């Protein structure tokens, strides 16, 4: 057993020396394998971290959220009545809390600084549904009525402070599309809510009734709701659609639940993953062809050496193993480089997206597995060709 190990070790050293001698061709083959491996490994890391980050957001915000939006029937605009939106939690359709809101864009001006932001005119239930906490001051509420009060998101507050050169304080006045509003609160940072389409960090929240100060004819754009998690969200969605359809003057509503969004995101991630996997596979095939080319050239250039080995007693199996080891070393080096590059790419993508990077569990095993597969598959033919050489013909070659 120890003798076999010594033979394999000698073959490995010999294979490394031969690959080093080929230099240019070896580097080209390494680049092909490294690119293919990096594409696959990066895909694994990006997909894993994107899903982890998405699930983390849903863990914080809840998987029981529902977003209801008006849907026109083509004849006239769909309008959700305010009373219907407020009462949906009390009619037994599976909704336990609801908050209508108007979402649009606005221009925030304070002093000489002007910034673009989201305007959210909402009833006071929006804070609990969006899991938004107040860092300073207080929330807007329904009792504020038409009062010119505003609550600023965390990122918007920092942007205003950077523009004006001083921190935003409670009681400061800002101008929203020409209307002067008083800052009564600042929100703590909160995840962007994919279900509700809300990015409160970059938003100004005002009382629902105060929307008339800024919008000539304000209409509900969304109804945020929370459903009983024990209910089937498909059935609840149908009941919500029927409820609003019977109370709207035109059109109906579209209902999207958190679970439906998760399923959609999973499907999209799977599609993107398959695309990246296809790109990586093509690159690996190109790299594998490079390995085969290097091995074939090595066989051609070393025919005399192969003939001598066969003539002095080497078995054809030994010749085959010798070239397979070279192919495995070449593919292992390329896969190792590709695994490092793919991991670095995944880390950079996560960092640029503001995510916390985590290693995909299957990345390292897959990197090693690809090295084995590429080496064995694309190195088999050159190794078999070397093993079939006639020693007499090989010894006559120059």
UniProtKB/TrEMBL annotation:
It comes from Bradyrhizobium forestalis. Pfam families: FtsX, MacB_PCD. GO terms for cellular component: plasma membrane. The chain crosses the membrane at residues 27-48, 271-300, 321-349, 355-378. Belongs to the ABC-4 integral membrane protein family. It is a multi-pass membrane protein. It is found in: Cell membrane. Keywords: Cell membrane, Membrane, Transmembrane, Transmembrane helix. Its main location: membrane. The keyword RNA-binding does not apply. Residues 26-241 form the MacB-like periplasmic core domain. InterPro entries: ABC3_permease_C, MacB_PCD, Macrolide_Exporter_MacB. One of its GO terms (molecular function) is transmembrane transporter activity. This is ABC transporter permease. Residues 278-391 form the ABC3 transporter permease C-terminal domain.
